[in-house]
Amino acid sequence: MRGGKRFLRLALALALLVAVTAPLGGTRAALGAENLLVCKACDKSFYDIAVRVVEEMNLTHSVTVRRSSCLGACSQPPVVEFRGKVYASMTPEKLRSILREAYP
């Protein structure tokens, strides 16, 4: 019975790890993936578009889409941040171009 207790402890620890590391307001993060932050303050619909673009480009293991607070370019939504650079007036085509350059 002792092995059963160890298994239950391991299963509980794994469940807690998954619960703690699951992103808030974003796609499930891949280990080592870069964040693509989408400003939720100025545009609420581009998040879904960004997730779709990342999925279509098969970059889900490389890029994690997350909602963020204000990125500071409210006058030109939608706004995203990738690799420390803020991009305004974002479109699906612009996002594809940025990601193609980052992941040739």
Describe this structure in words.
This protein is an alpha+beta fold and 104 residues long. It has a single domain, classed as Glutaredoxin (3-Layer(aba) Sandwich), CATH 3.40.30.10. It is 40% helix and 17% strand. It is built from three helices and four strands. It has a four-stranded mixed sheet, covered by helices on one side. A hairpin with a 2-residue loop joins β3 (80-82) and β4. α2 (46-56) crosses α3 (92-102). The longest helix is centred in the N-terminal third of the chain and has 20 residues, at 2-21.
Q: Number of folding domains? A: 1
Secondary-structure element order, as H and E? HEHEEEH
CATH architecture: 3-Layer(aba) Sandwich
Number of helices: 3
Report how far the terminal alpha carbons are from each other. 53 Å
State the strand order across the main sheet: 2-1-3-4
Low-confidence stretches: 15-26
Shape: globular
How many strand units?
A: 4
Report the radius of gyration as a whole number of Å. 17 Å
Q: What is shown here, in short?
A:
40% of the residues lie in helices and 17% in strands. It is α+β, with helices and mostly antiparallel strands.
